[in-house]
Structure formats: structure tokens, C-alpha cells
Amino acid sequence: VAAAHPDAETLRGLIRDIPDFPKPGILFRDITPLLQDRDGLKMAVRAVADPFRNEPLDYVLGIESRGFVLGTPVAMELGVGLVLVRKPGKLPHQTIQASYELEYGTDTLEMHADSIGAGHRVLVVDDLIATGGTARATVELARKAGAEVMACAFLMELTALNGRQRLDVERIHAVIDY
Ligand code: AMP
């Protein structure tokens, strides 16, 4: 287990807990106070990017929507480009898809079919890992395209849900544990 990031507790203090959102029983971890704090925003981006600074990476894969917000500056911080992983019907060109299970039914994520391929090393970024279904589908997309998933990086992890066990990825980085 990696040591806690030195800024983890400062960042935790900028995240707001909203009970019963978007539905009863869910404790929503709201990062909007963190995003609007100029120091917190910078700190969060750096904390997510830190372990990968000397790593050979080609792209960050950002997962809609909060994975775009964090993934874009993380990609800039690491000096690589950004690939969008989106909900169905949003990307204009030909796509590949991966589906994952929700509590009721399934959901699908898409990526442009020509965006990444064999020989590309990617980092998957989202704000939070809960059950791991969203990140798992994204890893599947990257591998379908022939790319190598170097790691997954999150600002927050809900450890009780064991999402990291569902990800068949060696390196999983999360700044703040709940
Ligand atoms: P999962 O696929 O279960 O790992 O869920 C992760 C996705 O759902 C991420 O894109 C999160 O933004 C969102 N999410 C799940 N649970 C929460 C939560 N308690 N607070 C905020 N976002 C959440």
C-alpha cells in the first residue's frame, strides 16, 4: 500500500458530502468546492498526476464528465494528449463501445475507434472509483483498441466497495480514501 499523499487531508477538507444524492442512500462526494478553490484545484491535479511524472505515457483517457475536468489538466501536467471516453451518442466519428453493469440494467461508454491503438500507453483518469464498473469499461475500451493501460488514477476511492479488485490493472492510484 502506497503512503498517503501529503496533500490528501487538505484536499479531503475541500470535498463536500451530500447525503441522498442523486438518490436515497448515496453519499455523494461533491468536488465543486475543491474545483473553485484556486489552490485546491492545482493541488488536486498535481496529486493525481504525481506518481506518473517519469512514466512513459502517450495519452490520458478522461471519463465523462468529471474525468474530463480532472483528466484535461492531468494530461497537460504530464505532457500528453487527452482522449475522451463518453456516454453513447456524443462522439461524432466512428466509435467502439464497452458496457458495464449498474444496479439495474447496464450502461455503455464509447471512444473514437481511431483515437488510440497498439503501442500506445494510457492512463485512465476519473474523479472517483466506487464499484469500479466505469473504470473497468474504460480499461476494456483501451485494450480493445490495442493500447496498454499503464494505470488508473482517481482523486477519490470508496474503499468499502472494492472497486480496485474489479479492475484488472496493476497500478491503481487514489489520492483520498473514504
Ligand atoms: P463506479 O462505476 O461504481 O466505480 O462509479 C464511478 C463513477 O460514478 C464515477 O464517474 C463517479 O463520478 C460516480 N460516482 C459513484 N459514486 C459516487 C459518489 N458517492 N460520489 C460522487 N460520485 C460518484
Number of helices: 6
Range of helix content: 25-40%
The global form is: globular
Sheet-strand content, in percent, reads 25-35%
Note the run of SSEs as H and E: HEEHHEHEEEEHEHE
Small molecules (ligands, ions, cofactors) in the structure: adenosine monophosphate
Task: Tell me about the largest β-sheet.
Answer: 5 strands, parallel
Secondary-structure class: alpha/beta
Overall pLDDT score: 97
Strand order of the largest sheet: 4-3-7-8-9
Please report the total strand number as a whole number.
9
For this structure, the quaternary state is single chain
Low-confidence stretches: none
The rounded distance between the terminal residues' Cα atoms is 15 Å
Would you write up a description of this structure?
With 178 residues, this protein is an alpha/beta fold. It is built from six helices and nine strands, in the order H-E-E-H-H-E-H-E-E-E-E-H-E-H-E. The chain has helices at 8-12, 32-35, 38-49, 66-78, 133-144, 163-166, and strands spanning 16-19, 27-30, 59-63, 81-85, 95-101, 106-112, 121-129, 148-157, 172-177. Strands 4-3-7-8-9 form a five-stranded parallel beta sheet, sandwiched between helices. It has a two-stranded antiparallel ribbon with strand order 1-2. Strand 7 (121-129), helix 5 and strand 8 form a beta-alpha-beta unit. The longest helix is centred in the middle third of the chain and has 13 residues, at 66-78. The two termini are 15 Å apart. The model has no long low-confidence stretch (mean pLDDT 97). Adenosine monophosphate (AMP) binds at residues 26-29, 63, 66, 126-134, 163.
